Every structure is written in structure tokens, then in C-alpha cells.
Amino acid sequence: MTGNKVESFLKSELEKKNALLFVLIDSEESKLESSQKLAQDVEKIGASAILVGGSSATDQIEMAKVVKGIKKGIKIPIILFPGNITGVVPDADAILFSSLMNSENPYFITQAQALGAPSVLKFGLEPLPTAYLVIGDGTSAWFVGSARGIPFEKPKIAAAYALAAQFLGMRFVYLEAGSGAKSSVTPEMVKTVRKAFNGFLIVGGGIRDTKTASDLVKAGADALVIGTFLEKGGSIKKLAEITKAIQRSK
Ligand SMILES: CC(C)=CCC/C(C)=C/CC/C(C)=C/CC/C(C)=C/COP(=O)(O)OP(=O)(O)O
Ligand SMILES: O=P(O)(O)OC[C@@H](O)CO
Ligand SMILES: [Mg+2]
What we know:
Bound molecules: geranylgeranyl diphosphate, SN-glycerol-1-phosphate, magnesium ion
Keywords: Cytoplasm, Lipid biosynthesis, Lipid metabolism, Magnesium, Metal-binding, Phospholipid biosynthesis, Phospholipid metabolism, Transferase
Oligomer: single chain
Subcellular location: Cytoplasm
GO biological process, one term: glycerophospholipid biosynthetic process
Enzyme class: transferase
Strand content: 15-25%
Low-confidence stretches: none
CATH superfamily: FMN-linked oxidoreductases
Structural class: alpha/beta
Organism: Nitrosarchaeum koreense MY1
């Protein structure tokens, strides 16, 4: 896919819905059949995109199968969420082409991107330029990405990174508390980042209830990412309630 089809789609969804739900499918956790059904179910309740990735998803073949398999059954875009170059696979619509700006390892800031870029082009994936900011510590993304986690109670630091991302031309910021995080990023941090950053603001990690979700959206999040809640058996009905709540919150 060329151009900015997915980015335009997300913008138009945002105009209609005020805030979006992205569901993360970790190809290491969910096998093909369950992923296909899950993707269809969450599309029905109003999810705007499916993210496929994992911080330790090194099985490129399995990941490619999951992407190809779920693609057939849904209309919403599949956006790759790579934790490394092994996360770049064909048949998806777009990729969070992210730089872990607060990593201590330049590999996660620019080298993985350089190594992955030719495949992104070859597979025709739309790159969504994303500043990936890891908040707090102790999670897989934090450990694997050698992040110097931004403290939860330091919103101004997150906002400074987001502003730098904007000056660098990135159109997406992803505030990541980490998959399965005990608590999500604070609404205060979202609010402070929102004031500094004009682009598309994604928030994820540890979101599993309606109040947290709607508070984050009220604070200015454009899209929330939910993964672990479903992996741990959370119901589609509850996810539908969360979706409704965020689409009323702004
Ligand atoms: C652009 C390209 C080719 C690569 C980007 C490489 C970067 C910046 C990686 C950031 C570091 C990292 C390991 C991010 C992980 C992102 C991710 C897919 C998180 C999902 O979390 P889970 O994998 O579900 O967590 P668990 O491992 O705990 O399940
Ligand atoms: O798995 P959860 O905690 O929902 O987090 C989603 C995503 O932000 C992880 O990268
Ligand atoms: Mg996971």
C-alpha cells in the first residue's frame, strides 16, 4: 500500500468517533484461529484497527500467518507493531514505524528502523512515523527495548519528548506503560503531552476498565490500545462497554 490511506482512515474515524480503540493481537499468545475470530469480533464492536506484534515476537513465520489469516475476515486496517525487525511482515496495511526515543540503546532508536525500512518498502506497508515512549519500568517493552523509563509522575518529561517528536516530523506519539502494566499512564501525563503535541496520540498498557479508558480519553488520548485484557479472557461485551464509553468521553 502506498500513500497515506491508513493515516487518512484513522483521521476520518477520529472525526466520527472522537476516540478510537486499537486491539493488540500478540502473535505469540494467540494462535491463528482464535486471532481470526477475535479480530472479527472486535471489528463488530467498533475497533478501528488491529495491531499485531509482540516485544519478543521473533517467530516471523507465525506472525506472517496470523496477519494473512486475519486480513481476509476484516475491513479495518491491520497495523504492525514491531518490537524488532522480525515484526516486519507482508500483508498488513501499515506499520507503527516507531523509534523508542527514550531507549539507552541506539539500536531501538534508529538501527532497527534502518534494518527494517527496506522490507517496509518491499512489502508496501504504509509507515506511520511514531515516537514510542516507554513510561515506568519492569515491563517487557521496557526491558527488551533498554528503555530509561519516564517516571509515571513526570508528565513534563514525556511532554518534552513528544514535542521533540513533533519537531522531528513524527505524526504519532505512543505513550506506553507496557503490556500488562499494573497501572496505565496517568491522565495527567496524557493531558500534559496533549498540550505539547499536535499529532495522533496513542496510549496503551494496563487499560482494562471503563473509568480508566474514559479518563485517558478525556485527558486527550486519540486512541487506546488494549491487549492483555482480552488475552486474559476479558469479554467482548465488556470491551464493547469500554468502546462506547470512550466514544462518548470527549
Ligand atoms: C520500526 C522497526 C522495524 C522496529 C521498531 C523497533 C522498536 C522501536 C522497538 C521498541 C522496543 C520494543 C521491544 C517494543 C515492544 C512493542 C510491543 C510489540 C509491545 C507489545 O507488548 P507484548 O509483546 O504484548 O508484551 P509481552 O511481551 O509482555 O507479551
Ligand atoms: O496489553 P495491554 O496492557 O493492554 O497493553 C497494550 C499495549 O500498550 C502493549 O504494548
Ligand atoms: Mg503480549
